[in-house]
Amino acid sequence: MGGISWEYTENERRQIQKLFYFLESKRLLINPADMELPDQCAQSAVEIKEFLVGLLCGFRFSKDVESHLKELCVACNVFLDEINFRQQPHIIYKNNSGDWADSNFSTIMKTFRKVFRTKIAYMEENYGLSFDNHIPEKY
Questions:
Q1: Are 79 and 108 in contact, with CB atoms under 8 Å apart?
Q2: Does pLDDT of 139 surpass 70?
Q3: How far apart are CA 78 and CA 86, in angstroms?
Q4: Which among 112, 40, 41 has a CA at the least distance from the CA of 72?
Q5: Of all helices (H) and strands (E), which one includes residue 100?
Q6: Is residue 120 assigned to a domain?
Q7: pLDDT digits (tens, 9 = 90+) for 81-104
Q8: pLDDT tens digit sequence for 20-73
Q9: 4, containing H or E segment
Q10: 3-state DSSP helix/strand/coil percent for the chain, to nearest 5?
Q11: Closest residue by Cα to residue 59 from 16, 102, 93
């Protein structure tokens, strides 16, 4: 029985590593928010969600990890809902760098990235993996 349990965990670990490789390539998570365009970010969130759903449909994860992956899907949906709502009037302000910034977009990015940072940290710790890019806390 020990061998079967180890194999399952190792296979699950490989799937998480595959997810990390994919997410490390996503500008939506990695780039400074002021370098991003909302339409491109929305497309990236759709791609991330599709990848997550593909993983969930194609592999049986432990309940704990499955729950975390589903929460990432929810974060993508919330992000997309908020980006769509963004058409409403919002505040544009000058940030510390003297650049114009959109307070709604900044808040949406902050919330989205926080969820991903938290879930990735959990998976790094539990699977001994490393997410090689940094998801900025400052937006």
A1: yes
A2: no
A3: 12
A4: 112
A5: strand 100-102
A6: yes
A7: 998 765 555 555 556 666 555 667
A8: 999 999 999 988 766 777 888 899 999 999 999 999 999 999 999 999 999 999
A9: helix 2-24
A10: 70, 5, 25
A11: 16
pLDDT of residue 5: 45
Number of domains in the chain: 1
Q: Is residue 123 part of a domain?
A: yes
Report yes or no: 110 and 99 within 8 Å, Cβ to Cβ.
Answer: no
**Do residues 120 and 20 lie in contact, with contact meaning Cβ atoms separated by under 8 Å?**
yes
Its domain, for residue 38, covers 2-127
Is 30 a member of any domain?
Answer: yes
Quote the CA–CA distance of 61 and 9 in Å, as a whole number.
9
Closest CA to 123 of 78, 64, 58, 37: 64
Contact 9, 61 (CB under 8 A): no
User: pTM score, two decimals?
Assistant: 0.82
CA 85 to chain centre: 20
